[in-house]
Amino acid sequence: MGQSYEQSKKTATKIIVILGIITIAEVIFALLGKGYIIDGLHFPLIIMGGVMIAMSLVKAYLIVYEFMHMKYEMPGLVKSVLLPTLLLVWAVFAFFQEGNYWKDRRGEIMDKNEDRVEIPAETKQQGMLKQLDENRKQN
Amino acid sequence: MADTATLHAATDDKKLWDGGASPFKSSYGKLMMWYFLLSDAFTFAGFLIAYGTLRISSPTWPVPDFVFSAFPGGFHHKPLYFVTVMTFILLASSFTMVRAVQEGHQENRKGVVFWMILTVIGGAAFLGCQAWEWTTMIGSEHVTITKNPFSAHTEPGVYLEGDGHDIKEGDTFEVGDSYLIHKHDGEWGNLKYKVTGGEDAGMVKEQAFGPKAFGALFFFITGFHGFHVLSGVIFLLIICINSATGLYAARKNGYEMVEKIGLYWHFVDLVWVFVFLVFYLL
Hints:
The complex is a heterodimer.
Chain A lengths: L4 H29 L11 H23 L7 H8 L3 H19 L1 H9 L6 H18 L1
Helix pairs in contact in A: 1-2
Chain B lengths: L1 H11 L15 H30 L6 H4 L13 H25 L3 H32 L9 E3 L4 E3 L12 E2 L4 E3 L2 E2 L2 E2 L3 E4 L8 E3 L6 H32 L2 H5 L4 H26 L1
Antiparallel strand pairs in B: 1-4, 2-3, 2-7, 5-6, 7-8
Helix pairs in contact in B: 2-6, 2-8, 4-5, 4-8, 5-6, 6-8
């Protein structure tokens, strides 16, 4: 489908070479940005993260569209497989935001963990009885 | 062309989805492989997002270039070299898989078997590399799922003792510098240091263990991926043997089974792209 045998052989070779080049570029960039190649040179995290994620997404596109032949499938199939993964974009933002929140409140959480609340036995029982009464009234 | 015409006719009749036709022009097996891979993608994404969340929530995290810097043959301080080799092995096996699928479309039995054997070798080589990496981490660096001796400093200071490896007495360090706590005769040797800056300047402290979650996440996620590779290798072998015996040639469907295991195999490579990104590059 799509390409002749000779053509597809050439495409496969081309894609694997591109994937190899991107991988090498990623590693070089990772080491360059952290000062391994040129002493004292450091890229900010946002640039490092952005470039690496972009390069990985290009690799993912090439693997799915060329190696897994997504390019030659029917539009309905493509949509039914790829659109659900968009949910993950939301998951990434939601959870990373949450992680950041935990980090900012680490001290507070540790303090709370130290807190010990003593509840006198009577109060506990009174509370339960009160709750029971309220439930009865509602019903 | 004839196919497209039939398809259009079927659409007009609104009978395309009534059964008997193949609306996505894909076999049941291939379509279900795609949906299985979609669900597997969600599983992996769940793990990787958990990794990211815990990493973000920690005040410090082991630096990958420092943690993954050993190379077979006793080499150290070779940041990312070994994992790059692993990535290339997996990429190469993905290429040989593509070739096997293409030979399958040509109904070329010998070609299919030849390229599949190469793919199996690639998968096995990757597993071997992973076994070596795990052995190094567990055996000589003593990382476990509950104890993580890798960490990075959060304040500048000067060491008051050496560990007989890389750190000598009097060595200074800055915020963000990495360290590995070594084990000597079964005893952890957390080094003492004097803080030279920040809030606690002047205090004497001991190297703290790194975030616990690191070991658990590393072994669990790379282990889960490695298990996918292992299952892949086993299925590749079975399908390779079936191809060799002529089972798929008799089906006359262009070695569709090879295509299906090919989809799975590329997916394993695809997951590795992201494991490589979050564990080793960032």
